[in-house]
User: Fold this.
Amino acid sequence: MTRTAVVNDYNHPQPGATSTLTLDEKVSQEILKNGIKRPKGYTVSYHANPQVEKMHFGPKHPMKPWRLTLTNKIVLAYGMHEAMDVYLSRAATFQEMTEYHKDDYIQFLSWVTPKIKLDPGDTNIFPYNMGDDCPVFDGLYDYCSLYSGASLDAARKLTNNQSDIAINWSGGLHHAKKAEASGFCYINDIVLAILQLLLYHPRVLYIDLDVHHGDGVEQAFWSTDRVMTLSLHKYDKANFFPGTGGSDDTGPKNSANPGAHHSLNVPLQDGIDDKSYVQLFKDVVDPIVGTYQPTAVVIQCGGDSLGGDRLGCFNINIRAHGACVEYTKKLGLPLLVLGGGGYTPRNVARLWAHETSVCLGADLHPSLPAHTPFIEHFAPDKSLYPELSQTGRYDNKNSDKYLRDIVTSIREQLRYVQGSPSVQLQHIPPDLGAVRDEVEREIQEEREARDLGRRRRERGVGARGEYAH
Assistant:
């Protein structure tokens, strides 16, 4: 009978023989192939919390937080995380969210669950605008506080000079109002982040690339000259949500109001293409920056302005959308980069991965790395840059004259902007950083009080640690 060795000789595997090492090696190869390295002269930070990705609006709802999983997998597959400061963001507190939103609305979000029957006749419920677009789902409050917390964390990294470009793809939910949900958005993380920036920056420029008008942000800063909002979007008052953002919507009509002429809109028709969109963006942003002289910029990178989006109607490709982020980056100002709309998850993930590379100054190979998780979702081409302008293509209804008229209208509005606003005359919001410090102090004090009580109980009784669990 042959004896079997109880302990066999162990041969160390060659490099690449184990799955973990193989993955590390493949990522390292991608880093070298794509020239990914930490940018010189500036820092990029990436803010995310994987708990957001698990949320589910419902099987038929177009908003899919899972698009964030796809985005992060592509970012990791290319090795872009090695060139950034990556932060696991914490949830925003109740007090932080009520710096803009009403207390009763946040209270409602904190207790409502799908098990609670919402009575359409109950005026205590439906003023919050919950329904098909903004459903109540399991984990709703956690979802809101997590994506808002990531935007606040990103804004603080900018104000603390820990970052020059801060990215949060889970944020950018621009439709939410002070006391109600709207357009798949519950908490307006953009407003909360801008309030944080205003503690240190006298003027903030907000740019919105979503196919839908950034009405919630515009409304929040309607009466101040410390924030200028610019939204490029499809406009059809009767047939396209939210039906606002016409060229004559420029802020309060009373010229004595500080916010007059500080809400700028670029209303577009179906089918705008890459060349027209990028040129229009530059022709509009350049005079705005020259006149308003912002000291920080927030850009919302909604992916529903891409061609082939489930709810969109433009013919824009990923590189053209990214060219707008690139142009904004070259302004050399502190930059907060946020997500937003986008309802074809595979294309949204491609877009945000590309725009992450734009922030890093990396030129990515168009073929997705073979080790990218869920790569089958990007079939058949498995490319980072598929041709989207031909997917469900819309006829371009934006004539050259129409686009020139938009630029002329924007320049005309800027004539009324009397230089940089005086910060001394403006209300400065409370420091959300102080709120964070206070919360963390309270948690530490509670922990110390528990430890002290446990030590007193244990003194002379049994073994140490007996009451620890």
Summary: The chain has twelve helices and eight strands. Strands lie at 44-48, 85-88, 165-168, 204-208, 227-234, 263-268, 296-300, 335-338.
